Predict the structure.
Amino acid sequence: MTADRAPRPPRSLDPIFSPASVAVIGASRNRGSIGFALVHNLVLAEFGGTIFPINPHASSVHSLKAYRSVLEVPDAIDLAVVAVPRDAVSGVVDECLEKGVRGLVTITAGFAETGAQGAALEAAIRDKVRAAGVRMVGPNCMGVINTDRGVTMNATFAPTPARRGSIGFVSQSGALGVAILNVASDLGIGLTQFASMGNKADVSGNDLLEYWEDDPATRVIAMYLESFGNPRRFTEIAKRVGRKKPILVVKSGRTSEGARAASSHTGAIAGTDVTVSAFLDQCGVLRATTIEELFDVARALDRCPLPRGHRVAIVTNAGGPAIMATDACVNLGLEMAELSPETRAALASFLPAEASVANPVDMIASATAEGYARSLETVLADPGVDMAMAINVTPLLTSPDDVLAAISSVAGSGGDGADGAGGTDGGGKPVLVVMMATEDFYERVKLDAGHPPIYRFPESAARALSMLVRYGEWRRRPDDAPAPGYAVEDAAVAAELARVDEGYLPPDAAHRVLDLYGVPLARWRLVAVGDGGVEAAIDAAVAAGAEIGFPVVAKAVAAELVHKSDVGAVAVDLRDEPALRRALAAIAGAVAAAGHRLDGFLLQELARGGHEVIFGISTDPRFGPLLMFGLGGKYVEVFQDVRFGVTPLDRIEAREMIRGIRGVQLLEGVRGEAAADFALLEEVLLRLAQLAQRHPRLRELDVNPFLAAADPKAAKALDVRIRVGPPPGPDGD
Ligand code: ADP
Ligand code: MG
């Protein structure tokens, strides 16, 4: 199969994954201890090199000669696995470095995860390890596994051994690492390497991505993450590696950062979790919600060619599961393929009269293994089909093993169909199998990789198909479509942002920032309440309204008033001076009644037509500026039809954000309406992304509403709010 022993350049993690000798420091004779389990697992997995147990009080461990310290070992040691009490770790590491050990896996816990003292100890150990040019996994980890036939090393204390396979798995959590190995074993899934990262003092998930980047045996990279050490470096590496092989992530942990109070629309909707999803999306990384789902998708990515579109055909011997499958596929954005007349005729020629030859193809309960093979082959040959799901509810007369064998014989065919599209990965169309069978069937087939991935339920197969589609789309997406880089007077923008140290910018400053950044605004005038009091301000506002030209819109300006229309502080469509005067007086009364101090009035031209959308920026402490686009107006939080993106945002990402909202049809024009100017919306988003990136003091921005209109002259911002603060601190490691 794969040339998994192909030569490759030496890499810095080789001493950790492919050592010729391993010392287990803290090796123990006590069954049930970590120090025993480590030696036991190494022996059990038939480690291809030499094992040196290190224990000052024992002459042998697990029938192996033990040494009192690494310094007493007569031979060279490539890897040291450290499982001594916390306060002994530093001394042990010193001895390892003196011995010339090339890699360390520190199992011991009690470091950065326990507080400042532990963190200081961890940093000191990391520094000396790095200074010596040695790499270290951990501390506080479960260890590493390499199933490569030339190595076969299980340097973990996990109870479940790993099988050889094609998935590289890195877990940030040790406890979950055990669960991961269990699930993998239950599903019969094999791994190339497994690493539990622990505190990531030195080696991080990013290093693992690079380790697997050019490793031919690792076809899918899977990660269980709790945090991103350095999101920017992850982006760079994941975007590059993701072009070569799929990266799947389960990211847990909604942190408290996500729950921070926010008064802006964008801040209220944005939380750490949407940020993480947007970020992973932009990196081309697939996100699963559970370990089980991750493996479901990983199996499909490992064994199937990538689909060239999103049209799915279902072949089944039972109606109910096919309906469930159809629902699941459609809900996940897949399309039920429309079978061509030729395909239907071909199916009708060999299927019984009671069968349905439309999609889903229901061959009814009498379907034979042969029927599966012919039907699948027929639908896969249809140029309107990009992939197939075969569903089999164990029939009375046919064995599921025969059905599976028949499906396997035709899976992956159809790639050279009449559409003529040449596959990038050897052609063929993916086929996933749903077998509703008894337990003994799954037990029989799980260790055999020679068939398409099997699922117990249509929903899991549908999810896996949808992920194949997403990854396929990402792979086909042009590599690079950088944002244009707009010429802007950034010094003037910085001066406006500097008017406030921390808090909301006054409306005139906020308007000028947008204006300087080339975002179209409704014509506006600002009138402050001065020494003359509210009466004088109303007079001045009436004059300002006349200057703009009727009809106008009047709004209150009050420092702490965030949602003006909630308290009656917005009046639209004021057609003449008396109407404007009455509205201004009413607004002044409403603001006072709501307990706010009136700072002034904002007058605007009345904007008409189009749909209200929202553009927003919020700042995530780790990921930096976050852009938001969606359907706007008063009900933003109710519908939450928004998309997020992290900076830097390229043109395709901006386009995908805008086209990606659920209500995009509204902007495309329904019932005879003209479509909004999408090019302008994309440009506004890219301009705001540049603003966010160049001005880290801008912490939050809401343009809500922005009028998305067909006529570019009618498209403009109607309400803007900007919050500034000190720039966020520099990136961590
Ligand atoms: P807030 O969001 O503080 O309640 P807005 O300034 O967004 O106040 O105004 C509320 C609503 O009034 C907007 O969603 C929009 O429907 C309408 N509106 C505001 N300004 C204008 C304008 N210049 N032209 C037309 N309609 C407007
Ligand atoms: Mg508003």
User: Anything to note?
Assistant: The longest helix spans residues 458-476. The CA atoms of residues 106 and 139 lie 5 Å apart. The pocket of adenosine-5'-diphosphate (ligand 1) is lined by residues 522, 553, 555, 563-565, 570, 572, 604, 606-607, 612, 633-634, 704-705, 718-719 (CB under 6 Å). The chain has a mean pLDDT of 90.
